[in-house]
Amino acid sequence: MHFILFTLFSSIEVIAMFAIMFALFRFEYPFYHANVLFIALMMSFVSFSLRYGLDLTNYSTLIHFLLLIFFFSLLYRQHIFYSAIAVTISFVIYGLIQLVIIGGLVLFNVMNSSDIERAFSIQGMAIQSISVTVAMLLYLGIKRYNKGFSFLPHTNRISIQWTSINTSILVLIVFSIGLIGFMYYYFNINNYSGYYLLSSILLFLLVYLLYLSMRKDKTL
């Protein structure tokens, strides 16, 4: 039963992240595309195995993130660089949505961090449900107002020109990956100590990535 619930809620989170990605980068596929459902189920199984089979909870988010970049590149024929851009921005947006929700609930004493981290807790599933709802509202807003970027080539048969914008984006992606890996490891062993500082740094990286993406879009 625990495995089924974990798979269900984890898969829905991955689908919500892809909904944001497809809207933001103007993909023609629906967010419930067969490949997305496959990735969602696969990532749920991997995440469950890392957390409860291999006892790698502190590293599961980073591994999850890197595998998403790989699977998106493979199944949607994206160059790994562009796959990293799309996944990083979407992953960080979803992550910040969840961090804001957790911070708000803890701040107003609706729940505490130990309840959230407890395996298969009702509080954890509630946060996942709220996060998915907010993400889907964001998806609808992006679609409604036709916001987003058009620079993804939708093919992996390209060569990357290492302009100043591309180089800056790559540096930000590396920093974002490193910060996400550190944050979730640090939060797990320090009970969300440094939450506001680390979340603020992640928000800054996201804003800068979005700014560079807008500049890249204008060069088309």
Key terms:
220 residues; mainly alpha; 77% helix
List the helices and strands and how they pair.
Layout: H1 2-24, H2 34-53, H3 57-75, H4 80-107, H5 113-117, H6 122-144, H7 164-190, H8 195-218
Helix pairs in contact: 1-2, 1-4, 1-6, 2-3, 3-4, 3-7, 4-6, 4-7, 4-8, 7-8
| Annotation field: number of helices | 8
Category by helix and strand content? mainly alpha
How much β-strand is present in the residues?
A: under 5%
- What is the alpha-carbon Rg in Å? 17 Å
Q: Poorly predicted ranges (pLDDT <50, ≥5 residues)?
A: none
Shape: globular
How far from one another are the termini? 50 Å
Order of helices and strands: HHHHHHHH
Provide the helix percentage.
Answer: over 70%
Q: What's the average pLDDT?
A: 87
How many DSSP E strands? 0
Query: Biggest sheet, in brief?
Result: none
Structure description:
This protein is mainly alpha-helical and about 220 residues long. The protein contains eight helices and no strands. The protein is globular, with a radius of gyration of 17 Å. It starts with a helix and ends with a helix.
Brief overview:
The protein has helices at 2-24, 34-53, 57-75, 80-107, 113-117, 122-144, 164-190, 195-218. The chain is mostly helical and 220 residues long. It is globular, with a radius of gyration of 17 Å.
